[in-house]
């Protein structure tokens, strides 16, 4: 299985901050990397697919980058509604696997 | 809009079979990969497998010997069956739609709200 490792596991940030979360795959996955946002009591919601493609209806504050083994999700100007847990997920090979999550909290 | 809703027992006894159904509304079931994903505090998010609308399935090796997924296209439902459950199978179970786009990218674009399954005698 491909292991997905996110860092940090949690972070504290202020409204308006620029935040970057990283995700590293245990082997090259090309650009087959998706990012999800999950708020308490709700299912995950896709933000980015294919490493850098913004899902329709998602604010352009979110952007994704990377290829191979190293990827990043950036939130350009953190808003109150962005406080949540973020997960990366690879769709390069079965079984599809998720990172352990990064919790973004209010400073 | 597309909506998915899980249904099934919330309590399953150890060694018995977990059965869940997901009902899809707002779109056709054709052309998509219908997945089950579970989430527990200890294991995080775990993809269990998917069933394609035409009936073929792909499973996570971690549960492959115990899992069966099926689809009922006319009813717009798909199902999960997991046998010989243990406490390690306790989790919130989500059904989700897998969408394949140009470039071969797959991602989950719609999810159910989740069904909490407890394993206890």
Detail the topology: elements first, then pairings.
The complex is a heterodimer of chains A (107) and B (121).
Chain A: E1 4-7, E2 10-13, E3 19-25, E4 33-38, E5 45-49, E6 53-54, E7 62-67, E8 70-75, E9 85-90, E10 97-98, E11 102-106
Parallel strand pairs in A: 2-11
Antiparallel strand pairs in A: 1-3, 3-8, 4-5, 4-9, 5-6, 7-8, 9-10, 9-11
Chain B: E1 3-7, E2 11-12, E3 18-25, E4 33-40, E5 44-52, E6 57-59, E7 67-72, E8 77-82, E9 91-101, E10 105-111, E11 115-119
Parallel strand pairs in B: 2-11
Antiparallel strand pairs in B: 1-3, 3-8, 4-5, 4-9, 5-6, 7-8, 9-10, 9-11
Structure, explained:
Chain A is mostly beta strands and 107 residues long. Chain A is built from no helices and 11 strands. Chain A has strands at 4-7, 10-13, 19-25, 33-38, 45-49, 53-54, 62-67, 70-75, 85-90, 97-98, 102-106. In chain A, the strands form 2 sheets. In chain A, strands 2, 4, 5, 6, 9, 10 and 11 form a 7-stranded mixed sheet that branches. A 4-stranded antiparallel sheet of chain A has the order 1-3-8-7, with no helix packed on it. The termini of chain A are far apart. The model of chain A has no long low-confidence stretch (mean pLDDT 97). With 121 residues, chain B is mainly β. Helix content of chain B is 0%, strand content 58%. Chain B has no helices and 11 strands. In chain B, the strands form 2 sheets. In chain B, strands 2, 4, 5, 6, 9, 10 and 11 form a 7-stranded mixed sheet that branches. The relative contact order of chain B is 0.31. The model of chain B has no long low-confidence stretch (mean pLDDT 95). Classes of the chains: A mainly beta (107), B mainly beta (121). Chain A binds chain B through residues 1, 31-32, 34, 36, 42-46, 49-50, 53, 55, 87, 89, 91, 94-101, and chain B through 44-47, 49, 58, 60-62, 94, 96, 101, 103-109, 111-114.
